[in-house]
Automatic annotation (TrEMBL), chain A:
<feature type="transmembrane region" description="Helical">
    <location>
        <begin position="15"/>
        <end position="36"/>
    </location>
</feature>
<feature type="transmembrane region" description="Helical">
    <location>
        <begin position="239"/>
        <end position="260"/>
    </location>
</feature>
<feature type="transmembrane region" description="Helical">
    <location>
        <begin position="100"/>
        <end position="124"/>
    </location>
</feature>
<feature type="transmembrane region" description="Helical">
    <location>
        <begin position="411"/>
        <end position="431"/>
    </location>
</feature>
<feature type="transmembrane region" description="Helical">
    <location>
        <begin position="346"/>
        <end position="366"/>
    </location>
</feature>
<feature type="transmembrane region" description="Helical">
    <location>
        <begin position="42"/>
        <end position="60"/>
    </location>
</feature>
<dbReference type="Pfam" id="PF13520">
    <property type="entry name" value="AA_permease_2"/>
</dbReference>
<feature type="transmembrane region" description="Helical">
    <location>
        <begin position="136"/>
        <end position="157"/>
    </location>
</feature>
<feature type="transmembrane region" description="Helical">
    <location>
        <begin position="164"/>
        <end position="185"/>
    </location>
</feature>
From TrEMBL, chain B:
<dbReference type="InterPro" id="IPR021500">
    <property type="entry name" value="DUF3156"/>
</dbReference>
<dbReference type="Pfam" id="PF11354">
    <property type="entry name" value="DUF3156"/>
</dbReference>
<protein>
    <submittedName>
        <fullName>DUF3156 family protein</fullName>
    </submittedName>
</protein>
């Protein structure tokens, strides 16, 4: 049987069904930075933000096909690191991987740290007033990070049993509040369904919102590594991505429309009309909850956000150190990340890094709420750079190795890669929404990316002692991963056996 | 209606993004790489039956640890042991007895400690002492990056169960990623040495 026939047979008898793929493509809905981003996006630009979300929706679908092709060609443990190594060399691989994993944590993790406590507390008036007066409400999130850091260091994991319930309750909460907010008589007179009407007079206005809109869909790409084992992957990957992204977008559209229908976006300081407005701040959440369900609504949303924040922080602290451990095994990070505490069997150094980075960052900016959205957008830049490098790598591999077997091929090559790459470049270029200082986004992102690049250069040249820009052969990666005797063909044999044992 | 919702919420289901058998498939490749490694065959969708070059037979099963928006799939290595101490462990109404093996030391690994957890008539404590005093077992376990290591009664027979820190897949939504943590060659060898050493101690 030829390798092409094996691939065709493998694709036909995939073992994972469509529902699993669909569940994997629904991204993070309830993280505090996502809620704040959608609130301020609709508050700031209404229907124009809705258009930006549609553009981001198209970009993410194009990106899904690229990730699927990369995963089916290189189903290795290194994932992004290996895709970029083969496409562009080790320097870009280390830069892209750290950008995707660590820098997103540095920025989005800090935003989550500051916001998780604040978003929950604002729903409890007395407690919030007390904490606000001392200016320390953001320390609640820092306290949660330290608490979960200590628990994870001691090998204690929580939220395990509650994963499904929490996910369902969070999604249901957002949808219920959104639907009731839409059904109830509007408290605000609006010019359009999403608040302010569509404004295309200044195209850069739309472009400046794409970065924010992209953040809505964070996490959808979990569906892409399923490509090699999904039944009818060629049809089901794009369909799952489309439906998953549409599900998230629908929830956000309903929530956003309800928010602007029920909460007037008034300036926080009546004397400063150009300053921050209510929907740019976490105070919009209790205003919305109170308007929709009264005091009970505030408690519901407050408790929900506290649990969601705590669980998200726990996830960051629990998962990231393991990833760092794996990267250290691959030689991309120093060996100290592989240290396990003798008694608790936990990667202490990785946990320390995962705790210190967002806490120190939150401390450095003193939990300043005005800095949250720039942090989220800096995370989008870091995330976008990694995506861009994967796009370029997959395109280069198509040109250099067109004959290499792929269990899934991105359709209409290179159109999806061009759409998502151009979209990402535009999103990063115009990342600053109206009223925000671009320096607040570009400077921290640029500094961190620069430091990462310097680290990658030093590490590849002086530690790994390899040519930093020479692409690594796909076979070399697969041989390293699956043993010298096992080429790509035997890997497919292996997957066929596994498919047979499952099916 | 409420009952059905509660039942639906309580229903056992795999975390989203979980790929049954995928982590084991990676492990199988890794174990087959070394001359001193092991040949494995699937034994169901989430288990492997393995045999090392020198005839050691063991099984591997996938274990899922889910947290909110993430999960870890790890591999548990199980070596059947010929121990005739079922009576001590089968104490109704209490947790089954087991022997927990862990590393000692505050910063660096200094040795191993074996402790009995659960009911014991003294026979498990004697086995724990034998394990702890065995130099070969200590030398094998010391470099091993295990998360859990214990002897426990399962399916009617005693088994040595080792869950390694590597040979696991981490799947998270934020930041979105999926990553297999390799079981590198020195750890593979330490693992097989540990299984052999334990079998040798308890065969005496």
């Amino acid at each position: 049987m030829t390798i092409q026939q094996k691939l065709a047979r493998y694709l036909d008898q995939g073992v994972v069904g469509f529902p699993v793929a669909l569940a994997s493509s629904v991204g993070v809905v309830m993280a505090s930075p996502v809620i704040l981003t959608v609130t301020s996006g609709f508050g700031m630009a209404g229907s124009t933000f809705a258009l930006a979300m549609v553009i981001a929706w198209i970009m993410m679908q194009a990106q899904a096909t690229t990730f699927s092709e990369a995963a089916s060609m290189l189903p290795t443990s290194g994932a992004v690191y290996d895709y970029i190594s083969c496409g562009m060399g080790r320097f870009f691989a280390i830069t892209g991987t750290i950008s995707a994993y660590l820098l997103v944590h540095v920025f989005a993790g800090t935003a989550e740290t500051i916001l998780s406590g604040i978003m929950a507390l604002v729903n409890f008036e007395h407690l919030n007033t007390m904490m606000e007066s001392s200016g320390s409400s953001w320390l609640v999130g820092v306290g949660l990070v330290v608490l979960f850091g200590v628990l994870n260091a001691l090998g204690i994991t929580i939220f395990g049993k509650a994963e499904i319930i929490l996910t369902f309750v969070m999604w249901a909460t957002l949808t219920i509040f959104g639907v009731i907010g839409l059904i109830k008589a509007p408290a605000v007179k609006l010019d359009g369904w999403f608040g302010s009407p569509l404004d295309l007079s200044d195209p850069s206005g739309v472009l400046s919102l794409i970065g924010m809109a992209m953040f809505m869909f964070v996490g959808f790409e979990l569906v892409t590594p399923l490509a090699p084992e999904l039944k009818q992957a060629g049809r089901n990957i794009p369909l799952a991505a489309k439906l998953g992204l549409t599900g998230v977008a629908s929830t956000m559209f309903i929530y956003g429309a309800a928010m602007v229908h029920q909460v007037a976006n008034v300036p926080m300081d009546p004397k400063n009309l150009a300053g921050p407005h209510l929907l740019d701040t976490p105070m919009a959440i209790p205003a919305f909850a109170g308007q929709v369900m009264g005091p009970f609504g505030k408690i519901w949303l407050g408790v929900g956000l506290l649990f969601a924040g705590a669980a998200t922080i726990n996830t960051l602290i629990a998962a990231l150190p393991r990833i760092l451990y794996g990267m250290a095994l691959d030689g991309a990070l120093p060996r100290v990340f592989t240290y396990l505490h003798p008694r608790f069997k936990t990667p202490l150094f990785g946990i320390l890094v995962a705790v210190v980075v967002p806490c120190a960052h939150a401390w450095y900016i003193h939990g300043d709420l005005d800095r949250i959205m720039p942090l989220v957008l800096a995370a989008v830049c870091a995330w976008g750079v990694a995506y861009l490098l994967v796009n370029i790598s997959v395109a280069l591999l198509r040109l250099r190795r067109p004959e290499f077997p792929r269990a899934y091929r991105s359709p209409w090559f290179p159109l999806p890669q061009i759409i998502s790459s151009v979209g990402i470049i535009i999103a990063i270029w115009y990342i600053t929404p109206p009223g925000m200082n671009s320096r607040d986004i570009y400077v921290p992102f640029g500094v961190m990316l620069g430091l990462t690049a310097v680290y990658a250069l030093v590490w590849t040249v002086f530690v790994q002692k390899v040519h930093p820009f020479r692409p690594v052969a796909i076979e070399a990666i697969l041989e390293e991963e699956f043993g010298k005797a096992a080429g790509h063909e035997s890997l497919i044999d292996e997957e066929l056996k596994r498919a047979a044992s499952l099916g | 209606m409420l009952h059905r919702l509660v039942d639906w919420l309580r229903r056992e289901r795999a975390p989203r993004g979980y790929r049954p058998g995928a982590t084991l498939a990676r492990l199988r490749q890794e174990l087959g790489q070394d001359r001193v490694g092991a040949e494995c065959e699937p034994a169901g969708s989430t288990a492997l039956a393995c045999r090392s070059a020198d005839g050691l037979q063991f099984t591997v099963r996938e274990r899922i640890d889910a947290v909110f928006l993430a999960h870890t799939v790890s591999c548990e290595f199980r070596l059947p042991l010929a121990l005739d101490i079922a009576a001590a462990a089968a104490n109704p109404g209490s947790d089954p007895a087991r022997i927990v093996i862990r590393h000692t030391g505050a910063v660096r690994r200094q040795g191993i400690a074996c402790q009995v957890a659960g009911p014991d008539d003294g026979s498990l404590a004697a086995i724990a002492r034998r394990l702890q005093d065995d130099a070969a077992l200590q030398a094998a376990l010391l470099p091993l990056d295990f998360r859990r290591c214990e002897l426990r009664l399962e399916d009617g027979s005693w088994q040595l169960c080792i869950e390694h820190f590597g040979a696991s897949e981490v799947v998270t939504n934020i930041p979105p990623m999926r990553r297999y943590i390799r079981l590198i060659a020195p750890q593979r060898q330490a693992l097989l040495h540990s299984l052999r050493a334990c079998q040798a101690v308890l065969a005496v």
